[in-house]
Design goal:
With 92 residues, this protein is α+β, with helices and mostly antiparallel strands. It contains three helices and six strands; from the N terminus they run βαββαββαβ. Strand 2 and strand 3 form a beta hairpin.
Length: 92
């Protein structure tokens, strides 16, 4: 099923997680949760749980590394942050 996704369509936790991923050039898994790869002034100590990360991967807005310990924003994820609605196939 195709659907259009905008930032406002995402739950708040996913919005924050995707924003961190774009600003910090990806996320890495740590003991406390998922954190930004590179420091960004507006992110500070943002830590995200695995639920929002997994949901963004299912939506095609983040791409998981083969090892599963890092996630980077896809072109569609960056477009959503920049205010562009993207058409994505949603998996149930």
């Amino acid at each position: 099923m195709q659907t259009r996704i905008t930032l406002a369509d995402l739950p708040r936790e996913q919005q924050l997680c995707l924003t961190t991923a774009v600003r910090c050039n990806g996320l890495v898994a740590r003991k406390v949760g998922w954190v930004g790869v590179h420091f960004h002034d507006r992110e500070g100590c943002a830590v995200h749980l695995s639920g929002p990360v997994a949901a963004l991967v299912r939506r095609g807005l983040l791409q998981m590394s083969q090892a599963g310990s890092a996630a980077s924003p896809t072109d569609h994820g960056i477009a959503v942050i920049n205010g562009v609605a993207v058409a994505r196939e949603v998996l149930a």
